[in-house]
Write a structure and sequence with these properties.
Elements lengths: L2 E5 L6 H12 L3 E3 H9 L3 H8 L1 H14 L6 E3 L8 H10 E7 L2 H7 L3 H6 L1 H5 L2 H15 L4 E4 L5 H14 L4
Parallel strand pairs: 1-3, 1-4, 2-3, 4-5
Helix pairs in contact: 1-10, 2-4, 3-4
The structure holds adenosine-5'-diphosphate, shikimate-3-phosphate and magnesium ion.
């Protein structure tokens, strides 16, 4: 099995769905954000604060390339696809799945203190700025191999749809 890469905007469920999907497929899950945090010995928030977003993007790109391209589920961060070479790498090495969620649903999922604190961009941007980021990134996510609309679905149902779409394509 080629690695499955989950992409989509912050709050679409990449981390939660990836955990569940990896259990169902009986392969290990790798969260790119957690990989970066482990590699650098700092939280994402600390990296943004101490070294800036560009340094984080470099670590994120390296982490994607250091994870297995077989028998794994990789959960990316929402900004990973902005570097064109990252989505090209993921599509060449595995199957890229876009968890598509509308902006109001994302915003409501991200409004708790806990979710905001994990994501430095949310701490320094207005709703309008985050909405613009969402609009700007959508065309990058659309390059994925498969798309699942998550607005009305639980994480389990998102997994069901992913598995169904993979089996229809004879991938899993
Ligand atoms: N399908 C869903 N329905 C409801 N809440 C969800 C769903 N997917 C994720 N969430 C919630 O949204 C928040 C962000 O989820 P997370 O998996 O961290 O997203 P991401 O990794 O894409 O940023 C978490 O509180 C999570 O429980
Ligand atoms: O969209 C982004 O630029 C980011 C998304 C985050 O991951 P999630 O998409 O898992 O929240 C994390 O990589 C970082 O805070 C930056
Ligand atoms: Mg995540």
């Amino acid at each position: 099995m080629n690695t499955i890469y989950l992409v989509g905007f912050m709050g679409c469920g990449k981390t939660s769905v990836g955990r569940e999907l990896s259990k169902r497929l009986e392969v290990p899950p790798y969260d790119v954000d957690s990989t970066v945090e482990k590699d650098r010995g700092q939280t994402i928030r600390e990296i943004f604060k101490n070294e800036g977003e560009e340094a984080f993007r470099n670590y994120e790109s390296l982490a994607i390339r250091q994870l297995p391209v077989q028998h794994a589920v990789v959960m990316t961060g929402g900004g990973a696809v902005v570097r064109e070479e990252n989505i090209t790498y993921m599509k060449n090495n595995g199957i890229v799945i876009y968890l598509k969620t509308s902006f109001p649903v994302l915003w409501s999922r991200l409004m708790t203190e806990e979710e905001r604190n994990k994501r430095p961009i949310l701490l320094t941007s207005t709703r309008e700025e985050v909405q613009k980021l969402f609009n700007d990134r959508s065309s990058h996510y659309e390059k994925s191999d498969i798309e699942v609309i998550t607005d009305q679905l639980t994480t389990e149902e998102v997994c069901d749809q992913i598995l169904e779409k993979l089996s229809r394509l004879n991938i899993q």
